[in-house]
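3.2 Worked example (two chains)
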Amino acid sequence: MLKKRFFMMLSMCVVFIMFAATFAGANPSDWPKKVRIGLIPTEGGADIIARFKPLINHLESVLGIEVEGKSASDYAGIITAMTHKHIEFAYFGPKSYTDAANKANAQAVALEMGESGQKGYYGVIISKKGSGIKTLEQAKGHVFAFNDPNSTSGYLVPMVLFKRDLKVEPKQYFSHVKWSGSHGASILGVKHGTIEVASTNDIDLRRMSEKGQVSMDDFNILWTSDLIPGSPMCVRGDMPESLKAAFCGALMMFNSDKMGLQKLQIGGYVHCDDSTYDPIRYLKKLKAELKGKK
């Protein structure tokens, strides 16, 4: 299975690089001299730029142009940046991508895989071990945190759980509902007791554990979602087709950089397109319909 996956990625990489080289050689003047890549602040702006530094350096080397990493105080800031053409590339979450596709002409070209090679991740709801909160029923009446209104696992997916499956209104079910600002803040909040229950995901939980900021033994997992499509790497739609192809090809080439993947804490990149995120659009539509039934 691993050998098959390797050769599939290798052949995909060759196709994209050949395609990119064909166009780039013909119209290099179409490319900007510098591109900016926006990164949603899953664990805080400065932290995510540091985590993406090896990939940013790799993109500069392969594309032959300057690449600058940029983040923001929230997910909406990255969507707005692409809307106003302040960034050319972006790393979004699944929900924020679907919003950016509508508002900012974002186009998904690749998604990040988990460290075991899965093409997605799982939303989780957590509490602090030893808190006595081991189930969603026991979470009732406690302080709960979403992380960001544009987050998939931090807001959209758990909201569908509450509205459709549990048939509860979070503001009535919990004693207080707050916004933490990032997955990292939610996870640390639960660890330190400033938040009693929070929605996040298995990838960010593991990343923070691997960095030594938390231990997996610090938490109870109260609920786990179905598989969510992996977070996409995107280009702005008005960029030259040759640059889009070269960007995607460069991401596939990065799959051979084991140290870089380890820094990113992912298993690599695989090709995707806009339709990959249709299940997220379905959840957004369902959430809107459930809200209308109040």
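3.2.1 Second chain
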Amino acid sequence: MKSKKGRLLTIIAWALIALMLMVGCSTDDTSSTTQNGEASSDNNEQGEKKKVGVLIADFSDQFQVYMMDGMKEEAEKYPDIEFSFQDAKYDANTQMSQMENMVAEGVDAVIVMPVDVQAAVPMIDKAAGANIPIISVNRKLLNQEKAVTYVGSDSVESGRILMSHMAELLDGKGNIAILEGTQGHEPQINRQKGIEEVLEEYPDIKVVADQSADWYRDKAMTVAESWFQSTLDIDAIVAHNDEMAIGALLAAKDAGKAGDILIAGIDATPEALDYVEKGELAFTVFQDAKGQGRGAIDAAVKVLNGEPVEKEIIIPYELVTKDKVAEYRAKYE
């Protein structure tokens, strides 16, 4: 039988052992939590992608489809960056809501093709106020100074090329009709400005009709049908884009006037190139959709990496006649 003193020493010894075990377990647990926490943090840092919002005016517009193709091809080079494409469906209010969501989400940059440059002013102010870098593509902003860069083409120049070549085909005289894009859109304003600048040099070319078809083929077809059903004498139709030019061509075919009226547009989409090759569209003006898309993604990546970016990245328009169709068709391959 142990003495009281022996029992006391035994209790103390066991207590010390228990205490050491508790301290050891506590140390191991703390170390494990810290390491796991650090590993988790490291994984978050390594796995968390930077985010770029891409606001597109309308996914159904053929030119914008090709532009997004260029964007997505370029974006594949950067798997560590998440690109989120948003369709405004040509609604400025929808695009404003999309921008507000991106600002709230805290995206690292925004690429924007504005639906309406006037309506876009407050949404650009909101993003700039949140210190989110802005890259405008295809359409310059009214408050472009708040963007890092503009990637696109000179819309005024496209109007000049379109009207200059049509004036040559008309030998400087005749009656023309104009199909405009949606009123207030940057390309509508500036393409029309280019057309009018050229018309000032040709007093014998008369504008007998001028109407918006909102960039759409079906609307252009309806507008052109009404012209052909009237008493208007039309020698040529110039359209602010190829979709409207094709709409006018289809209406001319239905009216039996396809061979009598020169029709041309802007963009040089693959379908338009087919019509130029067949001689049904007089010509088109190439706007490098994929090039603009790739350029916008490249600019956004440079911004995220802290690299310098030019204030404007201009991709020139080019006249496309029948003999050049193969060359420009290859750009889509």
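3.3 Remarks
The chain has three domains: 1-36, 50-153+289-315, 155-286.
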